[in-house]
Amino acid sequence: MPVRTADAEWRGGLQDGSGIVRLGSRAFEGPYSFNSRFGDGKGTNPEELIGAAHAGCYSMALAAGLAREKVTPKRIHTDAKVHIERVGEGMAITKIELETEAEIPGYDAAKFQALAEKTKQECPVSKALAGTTITLAAKLVG
Question: Which DSSP string do the residues of 83-112 spell out, in sequence order?
């Protein structure tokens, strides 16, 4: 399996500096700063990137679980809300709220809820973030 990479460079002090984060594939490169992380400044931040990774991984893992049942969803959409808070003397990602909506005509709602919860536990990004509380709200439509 390939090893995925990313890099970041920071210049300057904590509050007045800024940086660039880049995916190894070069599919994304964006600026980040103290204000884009802890305020409402322009740019991205590590938590937003973790959220994108988690939402993407979860959606794909749910599709994989359905594929094992020979079921193909029309659509799976997942939002991730990543919470960063002061904990003691530092900062910590304390919670990630996943909200997923899957369009799978004719699929059993109880089976969907069970599979959605199992996927939350088995998604590789969820496993990597096991020290963080991860909640899930799953909705079957269609």
Answer: EEEEETTEEEEEEEEEEEEEE-TT--HHHH
Six-digit token pair at 52?
Answer: 């994108």
Domain segments of the chain: what residues? 6-38, 46-141
What are the start-end ranges of the H helices in 1-45?
Answer: 34-38
Half-sphere exposure of 69 toward its Cβ, with a 13 Å CA cutoff? 14
72 phi and psi, to 5 degrees? -115, 115
Please say whether the beta carbons of 71 and 104 come within 8 A: yes
Q: Is the pTM of this model over 0.90?
A: yes
Query: Which amino acid, one-letter code, is at 123?
Result: C
Give the CATH fold of the 46-141 domain. Answer: GMP Synthetase; Chain A, domain 3 (3.30.300)
Q: What is the pLDDT of residues 12-57, one digit of tens each?
A: 999 999 999 999 999 999 999 999 999 999 999 999 999 999 999 9
